Amino acid sequence: MDDKIISIQPEIENINNDKHISINARTSPTDLTNHSESYKNNGSLSIFADSKKNCIKNDSTTSLNKYISSKITNLKKTTPIKNKINTTNSNTNLNSHRDVVGLVNLHNNSKNPLCTENTDSLINSQTLVLESLLKSKTNKWSPTTKLYAWKVYDTDFICYAVLNIHKHGKPYIFIQTDYENENNEKGELVVNLLFNDIKKLVDECEDIGIVCSNMFMKFLRKVFITQSSFKNIYLDEPVAFFYINDENYKKYIKNGPSIEEGFEIIQLPPSYAQTMMDQLLFFGKGDLELATNRLEQYPSVGIIEKSTNKIASFYYNDGYGFLAHQFTFKDYRKRGFGTACEIELSRLNKEMMGVIPMKAVSLSRKYVLQLTEKLKYWSRISNKDFSQPDVYWTFFSKNEKHKTEIFDN
């Protein structure tokens, strides 16, 4: 499917929830170069510590099948917002088209832009996060989140930035381009164009998370420390991104996992958020409430032991469309429960939400990297080896904080 990317002339386009405004950049207007890259995607960081408790409450035993049925029914009732886009060409006066209303995705088919018979041809490192988050916005999956997005481009370069501001928890920014690209000049230009807009939107927040390749992050570190109140970096983690292509999805994921007799796959209830937080290596202000919202708004997976009602393993959906925070309690490890959760959540993300299964792994987590490489269904989005990250996962704060360490647990 060809990208339907509007040809609006400024180098930077600000797309917001309520009113979408085209903003003139400092460089001269040029036509957008539209080029798709194969098998590129994004992910989220798994950061769990040792277990503290693993008894799930009785109200959580609702079967996953019942949950899926209700979610599918709700999705069928949802009418996607139709595209209503004012576009320009190279000969159009930009000032006559200041407003861009209802820009909800970049593809011809707004109802299902990703899930087709050939997903590989659609994976584009520059639009995947934007597509996932706009899909969430369009279907109103997360009413507790506000979304802002920007497009920055010239004749031979394009990238997208997406900012999510949550009712609870820190805001997150994702900046995406070709992960093989290491053009520092372009990276600095993008940061300079975006910085003031982003700073204004997050100014009242205490912390902010940013996920992007080092061609952007090296300049973001500099401007946030020298030109904002977010002067403290307490996480700066190199991360690799993985995704599941169509061939591997059909071969390993589509039919779902097999688990031991006496165990059951469930949808985790919002009441389980505190137990999830107890397994984190760290969590911040508002993260408990954010996790509660995510369990309410998106699919997640747990495996419980029927005889004891204890949770053996779980996997969380982070709200950006990515698999995150897989954790198996020590008494249940080496029995395939973690992989079963991963397979089931990957299936739900694609079948229910139309989101390509994807995740991120810190390069500090050697065991998880080895396991991910061993599992045949994951593919790296770049050709880099495990000494080179695809992105840095970085937290900035207005306050001094203890440096966070990521490790296998």
Would you write up a description of this structure?
The structure is a single chain. The protein has 9 helices and 14 strands. Helix 3 crosses helix 4. It has helices at 64-77, 128-138, 184-202, 214-227, 246-253, 273-277, 287-297, 337-353, 366-374; strands at 12-16, 21-23, 145-154, 157-166, 172-176, 207-212, 232-243, 263-266, 301-305, 310-317, 323-328, 358-362, 379-380, 391-397. The chain folds into 2 domains: 12-43 and 79-243, no CATH class; 58-75 and 245-382, Aminopeptidase (3-Layer(aba) Sandwich). It starts with 11 loop residues before the first strand and ends in a 12-residue tail after the last strand. Strand 9 and strand 10 (310-317) form a beta hairpin. By secondary structure, it is of the alpha+beta class. The longest helix has 19 residues, at 184-202. Residues 1-122 have low confidence and may be disordered. Strands 1, 2, 3, 4, 5, 6, 7, 12, 13 and 14 form a 10-stranded mixed β-sheet that branches. A 4-stranded antiparallel β-sheet has the order 8-9-10-11, with helices on one face. Keywords: Acyltransferase, Transferase. It is an enzyme of class 2 (transferase).
